[in-house]
Amino acid sequence: MNEICIHVPSLRENQTVDVEVTVNGETQLMNYRVESIDWTQGGRDITGRIAYLRSRINGYDEGWELVQIGIPDGDMVPVMFRRRERVTA
């Protein structure tokens, strides 16, 4: 599968961005969602933060699959998901 890179503004926790893609004139509902997770809720220790981030990802809505974990921006870590089921419009 080909991938595209879209730069989105910094988001706060629980904000999302959904994207629809048009390929060769055909709109495909390839929805992506970026969640910004405050990983400091896992504590000060990096191991605790990673465990917290992992638990949030593992407990995420099953209709979405993990695509990418971004670079932390302060206390927030951007995590991108893609809707599992694709529907052609």
Which percent range describes the beta-strand content?
Answer: 25-35%
Domain module count: 1
State the strand order across the main sheet. Answer: 1-2-6
Q: Helix/strand-derived class?
A: alpha+beta
SS elements, strand count: 6
Shape: elongated
Query: Uncertain regions: pLDDT < 50 for 5+ in a row?
Result: none
Descriptive report:
With 89 residues, the chain is α+β, with helices and mostly antiparallel strands. It has one domain (21-88). The chain is built from one helix and six strands. It has one helix spanning 46-58, and strands at 21-23, 26-29, 32-38, 64-69, 76-83, 87-88. It has a three-stranded antiparallel beta sheet with strand order 1-2-6, with no helix packed on it. A three-stranded antiparallel beta sheet has the order 3-5-4, covered by helices on one side. A hairpin with a 6-residue loop joins β4 and β5. The longest helix is centred in the middle third of the chain and has 13 residues, at 46-58. The chain is elongated, with a radius of gyration of 14 Å.
Summarize the structure.
With 89 residues, the chain is of the alpha+beta class.
Please write out the topology.
Layout (H helix, E strand, L loop, with lengths): L20 E3 L2 E4 L2 E7 L7 H13 L5 E6 L6 E8 L3 E2 L1
Characteristic terms for this protein:
89 residues, alpha+beta, 3-stranded antiparallel sheet, 1 helix, 15% helix
